[in-house]
Amino acid sequence: MRNYLSSNRSLLLFLCTYRILNVILTETIFEPDEIWQNIEPINYFLFGHGVLLWDWLTGIRTVVGLIFYIPNFILYHLLLKNRIYYDLFSFYLPRIISGLICVISNYYTIRLGELYHKDRNDMIFRVIISHGIWLYGTRTHTDTLIMNLGVIIFYFFKKYLIQIQSRNKKTENGNMEGSFLIPSALAFLLLSYIFYLRPPSIVLLIPILLEIIIYYFNNSYVDLIKFLSTSILYAITFLSSFIVIDSLFVGKIFSSTIFFIMVNIIYGISELFGTSPFYFTILFFTVLVGIQILEFIFKMNRNIVVSSSAILYLLVYSIVGHKEMRFLLPAIPFVLIVCAENKKIKVGNKNKRATKYKRNITKYLSIKNIIRFILIIQYLVSVFINVTHQRVMPTLRYLKENTSPNDSIFFCVCPYSFPVYSYLTLHKDLKMLTGEQDIFSKMNDIKVLDKYKGQNIIVGEYKKFKENLPKSLEQYTSYDCMVINKTFYNQSRSILRNYKVVEIFRYAYVMAEDDKDIFLYVIKKIK
């Protein structure tokens, strides 16, 4: 296997197969943003079906962030009449697209590790066995996209630094005449892209950019000016292009990035969704990388630039009041690189270091094997979680196969748990409870963009519904079918006398959230 993966082409093929398997086994949705940031909005824009959440209605989200998934939904539209394609085009194919981006990211993570003299086999092992990447790498979060693109950008800049260092050495030896090397336009395009989607993400690349700038500063002021000028030109060009796309889409001069900063930093609207102390960043990240958090602490001084990227990113997000585990995903590849073993250096028998190495090899191997064993256990647990925790596809498939487009369906579950409108596109009468926070309490002049006039931000619908059960359910008893969690069903049996349970699905094995339940019931009206 090691010999097979020594080829880059074979490595790419293996990673591709592995991530597609990752997608097939993942029929779960961890957070609403996975669907309602990038998938449901495309369905709304292309087909006029569904609803948009407050962040889209007010302009925090950008259509620029949807470009990877739009082709998938155009194909879906062309094949809309054949319901067999629902599973593929509304759920699996977007994740396959994310999975292929993850393949490229995994590949460049391994290659970047090699640039930092890491053992290739250990890098491959850590990337494959990373439970954080297994859980999130093929999902459709914006954070997943930034994780996958961030390490690719870092690789391009590190490769660029090595090239200019090599060119300088050759020039000093008189073998070639030095000339300024233009940095990669693709690297700056991707850098501008992730900055436009999520401005704080740029901190991932600050250490490597500083290393390039310091190198030029120490060797050539002229080349430094050329590099900075080229970088600024790239940034202005790409960011302007994104603003033009946003403006054309919205119908006025507009930048979602500026609005994102204003809403989340100046007004602090994100705090309405919960706040946590700074140390939660460490707790969340420990869940994502497991025992490697200890390895990282002991080894981070070996690769200062890579370590700085992860540390700086975590520090920035520790300051933010509202914390989510997925916000920390982009730091994972950098931790894997720092933790990976260095390439083994062959030393002659007469060297004293070799004798010392032999004396300690048993201890070294035992620690290494213990860590690997723990990593495998973490990975196996994550596989189970990925397959079982908040599993939505069995319920959706049942609805597709056992209801007609004329049937009305009410989702009486925690808001945004299902890709309701993108999956059941042919159903015209669908209702999902919304869970919008009172954003007007933080920013009373916030408005729905003119483009979305006609859609309202309904504050606290789910909260009011839950507080007034079972009476609040009466207004929905005209629906032909309901998806309702076990707790709500037991509370509302008197209201649901005209319904019968036709199927029960296990939504999860462990559920720590009050608004969710382990079992979901599909109930149909008795006719």
UniProtKB/TrEMBL annotation:
Annotated transmembrane regions: 56-80, 92-110, 133-157, 178-196, 202-221, 233-266, 278-297, 304-321, 366-388
GO cellular component: endoplasmic reticulum membrane
EC number: 2.4.1.-
Localization (cell): Endoplasmic reticulum membrane
UniProt main location, coarse: endoplasmic reticulum
Keywords recorded for this protein, A-Z: Endoplasmic reticulum, Glycosyltransferase, Membrane, Transferase, Transmembrane, Transmembrane helix
MF terms in GO: mannosyltransferase activity
Mode of membrane association: Multi-pass membrane protein
InterPro entries found in the cross-reference section: GPI_mannosylTrfase
Family: Belongs to the glycosyltransferase 22 family.
Record's protein name: Mannosyltransferase
